[in-house]
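Recap quiz, item 2
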Amino acid sequence: MAEQQTAPGHRTVQPVDPARRTEIDKQRVPMSARPYRLLALVKQDAVVRVQKEPDDTVMTWPHLLAIEFLAAVLVSVFILLMGLFVNAPLEDLANPNVTPEVAKAPWYFLGLQELLAYFHPTVAGALTPIFVLVGAALIPYVDRGNLLATRPSDRKTAVLLFTLFCGLGLVLTFIGIFFRGPGYAFALPWVTGMHFSL
Amino acid sequence: MSFLERVDQGIRQSAVWRSLFRNPYPNDERSRAYAVMNNVFLHLHPVRVRQHAVKFAYTFCLGGLSFFLFLVLTVTGVYLMFFYAPSANMAYTNILQIQTEVPFGLLTRNVHRWAAHLMVFFVFLHMMRVFYHGAYKPPREFNWVVGVVLLFLTIMLSFTGYLLPWDQIAYWAITIGTNMAGYAPLFNTPSKFILLGGLEVGQNTLLRFYVLHIMVFPLLAAIFLAVHFWRIRKDGGISGPL
């Protein structure tokens, strides 16, 4: 400690031991001997800082929260209007003895049901969904070509394969929804009407 | 000062209000940071987000809206649970009662149904969006896997709920769906039997699907959702711009 208490509440600064003088101490000059005066302090931020990266962020409140709120409100209005004007389907009481004319799985399984029309059930009903789910989960571990490429134009193979796969699923589902009638036989919706309920 | 302003001030300066909201309405950058950081629901988000991430056309809000629909489905689903018994004798009658006697019952059931379909649809679209942005690439590989699990859980939530009205659509859709599971190699008989609780769709199936629908899958989904959101932050926020 370079400081020593002389009287309560009053402190004097002891001269620095010459043997321990640092570079700063050597430059220390009595105030009266300075040829200049302190006119102003300039904060660091006021000077152009070259190394500072441009800030590409915005505040979550309000920029992100406003969009999220608006999106939630729009979807709420949509499902409320749907709920008000379109009733959820309800048919007769379940009866194991009466097979309905048209029996379809929920729409997200209709692609699989469509496959059932062409392939053995083990392939269509069991192996395909397992392959799809496991395959989807493995995508990041299979697609190791260019790990930095995110633009679709820089990874055409991956995008093409994925798009083909999604398109295939979409087409199968559409056939299942619109073009299958009684007994799951082909039917044209503009001739026999729709055989589908959500 | 008008009467309304005095009431407003009185409320804002009351001990109750100030204990509820520790900071005044956020108007500057510092208080806005605190508003996000100090709120249990908002602190899911970082205080600042990258500019491209708040553009609607980047995410189309699909992930957030899927989660929002999950919340809507939880609320409407809990309301419906008050009036529904998973019994082959009672279920269909209960649905009819919900539609005719329960206050807002028809609307709640409709909203539950449409929100459920929309959620499956949005989760699909969210997955496609993430793929086309290459957002599954390192360091986000595992979060993609969590997302695939969430897609599976979403579909299973929808599928198990499909049976609950116990009408002809429900019964035969589930019969077809579970028949497919019956063709799984090696596990064919056990997997179908475990799903149905019998050889065909019946009372046991209804109870199983009900428990899965209202308890098991929502809990699992909530856990995976928590991991999913947590990892977005830990993997460096939303993926970069294209």
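Chain B touches chain A through 91 residues (CB under 8 Å).
Residues 51 and 241 of chain B are 9 Å apart (CA to CA).
End of item.
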